[in-house]
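In response to the reviewer comment on reproducibility (Comment 2.3), we provide here a single inverse folding case reported in full, input and output, so that an independent group could reproduce the run without further information from us. The structure tokens appear first.
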């Protein structure tokens, strides 16, 4: 027997794809889950649990937090955001959104904090480890990430 046979999945319709309306509905459902639903509650708990350790990191870092004009330096801000995103991702684990994407956190660029993102399972988060600008442009790469 040198042939491969595949019978598919019961109930599966070959050649039928989801429409744009069905995809948009799933995206709206995910966005609502992240901002108002269970995802928002998880984010608040994870942020509270991670903030103390992030503060300790900020105090122990050798990077000068303030510039000569009294503003927070961009390098310090970016390092702090990356550490906060790392801590939050470690604590959240693999929590799926309604569409099956995983809840992840990405460092903001240019301001203190993290973005909440939904990533496909198996997505390499190292691609966005340096953070995302407010416009959605990934730092050090020429691509745009859709933020939720």
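Designed residues, in position order:
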């Amino acid at each position: 027997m040198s042939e491969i046979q595949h019978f598919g999945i019961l109930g599966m319709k070959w050649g039928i794809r989801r429409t744009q309306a069905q995809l948009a509905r799933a995206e709206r459902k995910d966005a609502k889950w992240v901002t108002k639903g269970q995802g928002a509650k998880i984010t608040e708990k994870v942020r509270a649990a991670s903030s103390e350790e992030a503060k300790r990191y900020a105090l122990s870092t050798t990077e000068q937090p303030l510039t000569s004009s009294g503003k927070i330096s961009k390098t310090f801000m970016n390092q702090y955001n990356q550490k906060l995103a790392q801590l939050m991702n470690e604590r959240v684990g693999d929590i799926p959104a309604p569409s099956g994407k995983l809840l992840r956190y990405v460092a903001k660029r240019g301001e203190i904090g993290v973005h909440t993102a939904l990533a496909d399972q198996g997505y390499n988060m190292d691609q966005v480890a340096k953070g995302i600008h407010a416009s959605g442009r990934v730092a050090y790469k020429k691509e745009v990430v859709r933020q939720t």
